[in-house]
Amino acid sequence: MANDSKAHPETETFVAEPSEIPDGTIPGPDRRRNPMRSRLIVQARKLSRSTQFVIAAALILGLTMFFVGELVSERIERAAVQSAAEAGAHYMEAFLEPYVQELSRENVLSTESVKSLDRLMETHSLKRHIVSIKIWRPDGTVVYSTDKSITNRKFPMEEIADALKGNVVTDLEDLKQEENQFERNMNVPLYEIYAPLREFNTGKIIAVGEFYEKADSLEQEIRRIRQQVWMVVGAATLAMLTLLFFLVRRGDTIIQRQQVALRLRLLEQTRLRISNAALQRKMTTATEEFSRINELTLRRIGADLHDGPAQLLTLILIRLDDLAENCTAVDQESLETIRGAATDALREVRELSRGLALPEINDLSLQEELQLVAQRHEQRTGTKVKLTLGVLPEEASLPLKLCLYRFVQETLNNAYRHAHGHGQAISADYMDGLLHISVKDNGPGMAADAMVVDTAGRIRLGLAGLRYRVESLGGLFSIDSSAAGTSVNAQFKL
């Protein structure tokens, strides 16, 4: 008899126990990857994306289709067995029910009924398919059996419980129960069927008929259906894998082409960056060299002014003094006019000479340099300059020192010229690799287009020169101007 009744087939849910999960698939902090697994992972990563995808898809899709195929095959098998069982049950009910009507009144079958059932089992048409019959009372007692050794014996009722509810129950499994010893000894595939036997008048279930039918043809049919199911599932799986492979391979080819193009562009960008860096270094070197040559030129011009025109103007003043002793009063007035003009010219030439010739600033720190340029401006103009200096770098390149000296010198000159020296202030600080220099005044400010053109339509060379000096060393130049004053700012990244 069947251990598990299948009258009401239900969907089975398979839950893997933790002990059934293969070792190595549960990640944990103490679990170490073995060398073989590491080598497999390395080899898998060397495969193309399409190959990796096909392998992964084959595993996932293969497992999915395997479970689908198993489920479909099982359902088909159950349906086929149940259909055959119901057909056989209706056939057997027509033979057995007339002989069990007396069980509604008695607990045993009469001798005539038993003999009639024995003769029935000997008929050729029935014997070809049915090999054994049992009739059960509702209390689990076997009142008739082809195997006479179990007649009138009582067995557990689990096997006939569903049949007593009016269901036809079948099973195509091994016959392991005690009452199936006779059927097991036949060594032929069988499936057992339980069918309720009813009283004619009332329809009440008065017994359960159990018969064993040969399963050769049924098993062959089930195997044939299984093969067809697996062929369909396998063909569908292979078709899906092939389609997915070509789709992924096409996408992989596009990705590889794009990667090659990106690598080429990256190499080109790297080459251009290196080239730009080299050009930037050359430009910086050229700018520093130009600044040095420009400063030497300015010094030479200052020296030439001091040694040339200044000396000639001094000689003119001396000769004018000699001439003044022998001149008339009218000539004296003309000589004084000439002497005044020559004196003014000499003073301006000396001022220009001093402005063009910088002091020796190689050995000065930035703080000392800013103090020196402020001091010189105060001496020359008689005005005051406020210094606010933070912590400045001890070391700086000569081009930067020259740029800062000229920047502060020119902005202080502008403050003296346009703001009459009111509120002159120098501030400097160094933070996060950035050097900030600012020169302020409290003048009336400047027009918004002061950096573009002057009233004559010409570019203002002073401000343009400051911007060029600062930006030629990679600095940032800016002007903040309002009615409350002007601030000229420079920023360098050191």
Automatic annotation (TrEMBL):
Residues 1-11 have a biased composition (Basic and acidic residues). GO terms for cellular component: membrane. Residues 299-357 form the Signal transduction histidine kinase subgroup 3 dimerisation and phosphoacceptor domain. The chain crosses the membrane at residues 53-72, 229-248. Signal peptide: none annotated. Residues 404-493 form the Histidine kinase/HSP90-like ATPase domain. GO terms for molecular function: phosphorelay sensor kinase activity; protein dimerization activity. Keywords: Kinase, Membrane, Transferase, Transmembrane, Transmembrane helix, Two-component regulatory system. Residues 1-35 are annotated as: Disordered. PANTHER family: NITRATE/NITRITE SENSOR PROTEIN NARX-RELATED. This is Sensor histidine kinase. It comes from Pseudomonas mandelii. The lineage of its organism: Bacteria, Pseudomonadati, Pseudomonadota, Gammaproteobacteria, Pseudomonadales.
